[in-house]
Every structure is written in structure tokens, then in C-alpha cells.
Automatic annotation (TrEMBL):
Heterotrimer of RPA1, RPA2 and RPA3 (canonical replication protein A complex). This is Replication protein A subunit. Keywords: DNA damage, DNA recombination, DNA repair, DNA replication, DNA-binding, Metal-binding, Nucleus, Zinc, Zinc-finger. The lineage of its organism: Eukaryota, Viridiplantae, Streptophyta, Embryophyta, Tracheophyta. NCBIfam families: rpa1.
Length: 629
């Protein structure tokens, strides 16, 4: 089957057509440069004309692996033209290999610029990085929650300033885009421009999927009408814009595609997300625009976190009442990170734990600890914290979280005034911290009360403590093979299977690895004087119940096949009296509703503490008929 290359592809590229996506052939490929900066030079042909080209460094692996070689037919996806020593070079930013290798097509000749017909070739299409001026902007944040309504006024056409608009070819006779509010963006608009402030910027992340390796970063925008939207860049676009974008600066952005926002990762109040492309432009606004706030919050009282959905993203503000030291945490994949836990309280009478991860521990966490140690209780605003309901409710930082210490806002001033006028000494109830065994405030129940009181059948889970005896442990399936890779601040933990080459494969991460992790999925039966029930325990609580790791127990049973040792270990954990912190929630299995009981913590019974707990209940028993004694 004959291969038809793009007719006049080379002249069109050199004339400034950056949207052609031509089909070309690689006549030659050669490694140039030194060990520290490897580059590959190509000769590309459209069957009539040929031209020198360079591979962007992120495509070097294509040449090293042989995916692109002499004779390959490729389609250029993203590319620009650059003038080097008075010669025009095509810089290939992204491409796809169509045919790995074939004979030379046509009789191509070196293209000369004197043959150009039409517009003059662009002398330098390389992306120009914006020079960010150094200015002392106030760190004070404007955090008004009063979002202005959209005013549909016609704004003047946006023309990028000359020093900032060489971000790719601009087609002739193209009408300039009008500046519109973020709230008015939709996928059906042709040309648009928005003026907005960058409120958050994520790190560049690497990924691997069926299409190969890649990189991505995102940033959030806020305009003067209170509209917010996330902008995402991939691969070559990352190289163009990552160094330009700076939190707090105002930019003019135009050209890009709008796609539905992925709400699992995007917490902003916008159904769309902008994906920048090779033709997109970003221009720094040198004059500060005071009409655009520095940040926008939607604070929720701490008391409302109790009913917040797990993994939801929220904004909170509170007074820091305690800060724990930062401690190293070793992940299962061998990587070490830092964790620091602090407590916040507000006027709602509740307090909540905030867990800082990674760099937050050493930046804001260290500053907060120094302030609290010196007797100062600062106000802390948390933008985009993640709700966790593993043991009660708590908030954790994620990559998009931002922390503001003593912000200049009405909410912060009101909270400071309340705290200084007596809020400091008002007791608050924690919605996070595990209550110690034998605490007066723990919600102690019997097994029969779980069913009799219909626990777990409301919209949110019930959390109770039960003192019971382990009477049976299911041993035919007590753990599963899990993915050891880390996604963000958390381990993946999804179930993995063996692939054909005996490696473990995770469908979620789309990666293979030599060794997997083993995690408990333990089912056991507990009994007290009122009845018995089945309980499920995962990793940490499973280790507390069995006294060893899931991997060790798996190796004893399946690798060493030491059945006597395995049986004795299980028997040693039976008929032990334990104090279990249980999460009770109704779940749907097929079309059937079942109440699932999960052990999130298991402690040995401290009989001294338990006796004191019972003695303290005696005077109050008549007022607390549902309490166990």
C-alpha cells in the first residue's frame, strides 16, 4: 500500500502553519551534543522537499528506543520553527510514529527559503519566557466570600503586548479575542481571552499510561467577578508555561480547549477546565489589578465537617490551639515523608485535627509550632483541605492545599476577637481524635444495641466502642495482594494481579513491578454477653488483632507452608478480650442493603482503666439508660 506524505508539508511549516499536523518521513537521525545535553537532529521530508529538524529533549527516548529511526513515517503533532545561525530549524515537540520504517519516498531535495511562496517564514517561533518583574506585593489576602454577579458588559478586544506575544504562529486576518468573565466560558466559543490571578499552582507530575510517559501541571485562576477555573498543561506545553506561571500574578490567557472538569481531582466551582495547547498564549499583566482578589474562600464551620462527605475538598478557618512535632513517616514503597498534626477550634464549639504532609510540615508547620510554643495562638485559614473519616473526621493537606497564617479578612478578625474575649478558655469537643480506652465520653455499646438501635442506617456512619471477645477468625482468605506505589501522599493499595511475565500489575496505576504488598482484609467474629456479630478489619487494625503483618502471615501459610505454626498463631489470638473502635454504615451489595461493621482500632483491655470507666458511670446511670456498665 503506497504511503502519501503531506503535499508541500515542509514549505507550509516554514511559512508559519503550526496547525497542519503533517505526515513526513525521517531521512536521517543523528545524536549530537555532549553527555549532559543530548539532542537528536533529523532530516524530515514531504517526498519533494527536506528540512533539518531537532527533537525536543522529552522525545529523546523515542530515538533511543528505535521508535523513531531512519525511514520512519511520522506525524508531527506539536512543533515550532527556530532560527539558528541564520538557518530555520523545525523543533519537534510532539509526534506519533505511523510506520516504523520504509524505503525513501519520492526524490526529496533540500528546501531553500528562496522557494517560499506566501507569508515569510517565522524567524523565531520558540516560546519566549515572560520576564517576571520583582516587586514587593503585599502578602495580605483579600478573602471576601461575596462573589460579584456576572456583568455582561462588552469589553474591548485584547491585544497582547508586543514583548509577550511570540508564543507560536498567529494566522493572518485573525480577529482578536474579547476579554470575557470566567463564568461565561464554554466549549462552543471560538476565540476568547480571560484576565485572572493565579491563586494556586501544582508541581509538575510525571505519569505513565498506555500512550507512554508524560508530564502535567495545573494552576487555578480567579477573576474580578469571582469566577474560578483550573488550567492544565501537558508535555511540551508544560515546558512553555511552567516557569512563567507564578502564584499571585495576573495574566491574560487566550486560546485553549474547554473540557468537563474531573471533580475527583478538581474542587473548584466550575464545570469546565481549560487545557492549554501549542497555540495558547499567556501574557503577564505588569500593572497590578486591585479588582481581582488575591484569594477566594468558602469557609465552613468545624461543626459541619462532621457531616461532610469523605474525600471532599473544603475551606476552613480556625485558631491553632496545639501543634505536634513533625515526624518522619516511611511509606510502604520505601520513600520517606514528613507528617505533622495540629488542632484548630472555632466558635462552633468543635475542634478538628489538621494533618500536614511533606513540605507543609517544614514551611507553615514549623512557623506555627514556634508561634504556639511562644504563647501565641494564630488564626489559620485552610484553602482546599481534604476530609478524612477514617477515625472520626479530620482534614489533611493535598498538593493543591494552601495555608494562610493570620490572614487579613473579616472572618479571621471575628475569630481572633472571639478567642481573645473568652473563646480561649471555652472547652471544645474534638471531632477527630481517638478517645483513649476507658474515656468517659466514648460511645460504649453492646453488640445487641448495634442492631436494636439501628446503628449505621442514617446518612452518616456511627462510631461506637465495643468490649468483646474474638471467637472466630476466617483464615481461608485473610489478605490481598496490593499495589505498593504511591499516588500523591497516599499509597495506591489497589488489588494487583500477576501478568504473563510473573510480574505484578496494577490496573489503576497501569504499571508492573517485581514485588507487591500484602494487606489485611480480615473477617472475624466477636461476642459479648448480649450476642455476636461479624466484623471486618483492614491493615492497621488487622495487625493489632493478629499481632503480625499480613505479609508475614501469608509467608507462613503459603510460602513456608508451616501449617502448625499458622494454626497456633491464629489460636493464640482467639478468646482474647479487646476494646474495638467500630465504624458502622449501611452499604449496598447488589440490590441488598447490609450494615457493614469495620474495626478501625483494636486495643487490649486495660482493666484498671475499664474499671474506673464503669465506676464513673454508676452515678450517671439513671440519666444515661443507653450506656453500658
Amino acid at each position: 500500500m503506497p504511503v502519501h506524505l503531506t503535499s508541500n508539508g515542509i514549505p507550509a511549516i516554514l511559512a508559519g502553519d503550526m496547525n497542519l499536523k503533517p505526515l513526513l518521513q525521517v531521512l536521517d537521525i543523528k545524536l549530537i551534543g555532549n553527555n549532559t545535553q543530548e539532542r537528536y537532529r533529523l532530516i524530515l521530508s514531504d517526498s519533494v522537499s527536506s528540512q533539518q529538524a531537532m527533537l525536543a529533549t522529552q522525545l529523546n527516548d523515542r530515538a533511543k528506543s528505535g521508535a523513531v529511526r531512519r525511514g520512519s513515517v511520522v506525524q508531527l503533532i506539536d512543533y515550532i520553527c527556530s532560527t539558528v545561525q541564520n538557518r530555520t530549524i523545525i523543533v519537534v515537540l510532539n509526534m506519533e510514529t505511523i510506520i516504523p520504517e520504509c524505503e525513501v519516498i519520492g526524490n526529496p531535495k533540500i528546501y531553500t527559503e528562496s522557494d517560499t511562496v506566501g507569508p515569510n517564514p517565522i524567524s523565531n517561533g520558540m516560546p519566549q519566557r515572560t520576564a517576571i518583574p520583582s516587586s514587593n506585593h503585599s502578602s495580605t489576602t483579600n478573602m471576601s466570600n461575596n462573589v460579584q454577579t456576572f456583568r455582561p458588559t462588552v469589553q474591548p478586544a485584547y491585544q497582547p503586548p508586543p514583548s509577550y506575544k511570540s508564543h507560536g504562529a498567529i494566522m493572518k486576518n485573525e480577529a482578536p479575542a474579547r476579554i470575557i468573565p470566567i463564568a461565561a466560558l464554554n466549549p462552543y466559543q471560538g476565540r476568547w481571552a480571560i484576565k485572572a490571578r493565579v491563586t494556586a499552582k501544582g508541581d509538575v507530575r510525571r505519569y505513565n499510561n498506555a500512550k507512554g510517559d508524560g508530564k502535567v501541571f495545573s494552576f487555578d485562576l480567579l477573576d474580578s467577578d469571582g469566577g474560578e477555573i483550573r488550567v492544565t498543561c501537558f508535555n511540551a506545553v508544560v515546558d512553555r508555561f511552567n516557569d512563567i506561571i507564578e502564584v499571585g500574578k495576573v495574566y491574560m490567557i487566550s486560546k485553549g480547549s474547554l473540557k468537563p472538569a474531573k471533580k475527583n481531582f478538581n474542587h473548584l466551582n466550575n464545570e469546565w477546565e481549560i487545557f492549554l495547547e501549542s497555540s495558547s498564549t499567556i501574557d503577564l499583566c505588569l500593572d497590578e489589578d486591585a479588582s481581582i482578589p488575591q484569594q477566594q474562600f468558602s469557609f465552613r464551620p468545624i461543626s459541619e465537617i462532621e457531616t461532610a462527605e469523605n474525600n471532599s475538598i473544603i475551606d476552613i478557618i480556625g485558631v491553632v490551639i496545639s501543634v505536634n512535632p513533625s515526624v518522619p513517616i516511611l511509606r510502604k514503597n520505601g520513600m520517606e515523608t514528613q507528617r505533622r498534626i495540629l488542632s484548630l477550634k472555632d466558635q462552633s464549639g468543635k475542634s478538628v485535627e489538621l494533618t500536614l504532609w511533606g513540605e507543609f510540615c517544614n514551611r507553615e508547620g514549623q512557623k506555627l509550632q514556634e508561634m504556639v510554643d511562644s504563647g501565641v495562638s494564630p488564626v489559620l485559614a485552610v484553602k482546599a483541605g481534604k476530609v478524612n473519616d477514617f477515625t472520626g473526621k479530620s482534614i489533611g493537606t493535598v498538593s493543591s492545599t494552601q495555608l494562610f497564617i493570620n490572614p487579613d479578612s473579616a472572618e479571621a478578625k471575628n475569630l481572633r476577637s472571639w478567642f481573645d474575649r473568652g473563646g480561649r478558655i471555652i472547652a471544645s469537643q474534638s471531632i477527630s481524635r481517638d478517645l483513649p480506652a476507658g474515656s468517659k465520653n466514648e460511645n460504649r455499646k453492646t453488640i445487641s444495641q448495634i442492631k436494636d438501635e439501628g446503628l449505621g442506617r442514617s446518612d452518616k456512619p456511627d462510631w461506637v466502642t465495643v468490649k468483646a471477645t474474638v471467637t472466630f477468625i476466617k483464615t481461608d482468605s485473610f489478605c490481598y495482594t496490593a499495589c505498593p506505589l504511591t499516588i500523591g501522599d497516599r499509597q495506591c493499595n489497589k488489588k494487583v494481579t500477576k501478568s504473563g511475565d510473573s510480574k505484578w500489575q496494577c490496573d489503576r496505576c497501569n504499571q508492573e513491578f517485581e514485588e507487591c504488598d500484602y494487606r489485611y482484609l480480615l473477617q472475624f467474629q466477636i461476642q459479648d454477653h448480649t450476642g455476636l456479630t461479624w466484623v471486618t478489619a483492614f491493615q492497621e487494625s488487622g495487625e493489632e488483632i493478629l499481632g503480625c503483618s499480613a505479609k508475614d502471615l501469608y509467608m507462613i501459610k503459603y510460602e513456608a507452608e508451616d501449617h502448625d505454626h499458622f494454626a497456633n498463631l491464629i489460636k493464640s489470638r482467639l478468646f482474647a478480650e479487646v476494646l474495638l473502635k467500630l465504624k458502622i454504615k449501611e452499604e449496598t451489595y447488589g440490590e441488598e442493603q447490609r450494615v457493614k461493621i469495620t474495626a478501625v482500632k483494636a486495643d487490649k483491655v486495660n482493666y484498671s482503666s475499664n474499671t474506673k470507666f464503669l465506676l464513673d458511670l454508676i452515678p450517671k446511670f439513671n440519666q444515661r439508660p443507653g450506656q453500658i456498665y
